Amino acid sequence: MKYIVNSIEALPAVAKEIVKSLDKIKIAAFYGSMGVGKTTLIKLICKELNVDDTVNSPSFSIVNEYNTEMGTKIYHFDFYRLKNINELFDIGVEEYFYGDNICLIEWPQIVEDHLPQERINIKISLLENEKRLILANK
Fold it and tell me: Most exposed residue of 37, 40, 78, 114, measured as fewest CB within 10 angstroms of its CB?
């Protein structure tokens, strides 16, 4: 999937398309530079998934858990501040990644070797005039 997003108002449609893919593949890895809109897109995906909780970047906690109206859980990871790979295993990452719940991962390149092979890679790039290019593939 390829999207060119001209404004934040166009992002909900992209989030809706990504959610359709999450029905089969539960892991989504979000790539992009600081401030490109990874967390904003994740917030919209969570809204589309009917998350009851406030969605914020888990920059300091590494992982946030959100509940949906249907009683399922969504896990939101941010590996930017990960000090070493042991922290990844200390939080029990295998249980998250290989469970039945959706995992949304910011800064996945930091733990690339430990991510499940079956995942959706979402790459967000900043274009001119504040436009975004969003590429999503398996």
Answer: 114
* Cβ neighbours of residue 40 closer than 8 Å, sequence gap 6 or more: 8, 11
Q: Which domain holds residue 88?
A: 2-137
Query: Which residue, chain included where needed, has tokens 């404004």?
Result: 7
Residue 113 burial by Cβ neighbours in a 10 Å radius (0-12, 13-18, 19+): exposed
State pTM to two decimals: 0.94
Cα torsion 20, 50, 122, 86 to 10°: value is -120
**Where are the alpha helices (H) located in 1-138, listed in sequence order?**
11-22, 38-48, 85-90, 93-97
CB 134 within 8 A of CB 123: yes
Total structural domains in the chain? 1
Per-residue tens of pLDDT for the chain, all 138 residues: 999 999 889 999 999 999 999 999 999 999 999 999 999 999 999 999 999 899 988 878 899 999 999 999 999 999 998 888 889 899 999 999 999 999 999 999 999 999 999 999 999 999 998 899 999 998
Q: How far apart are CA 119 and CA 61, in angstroms?
A: 23
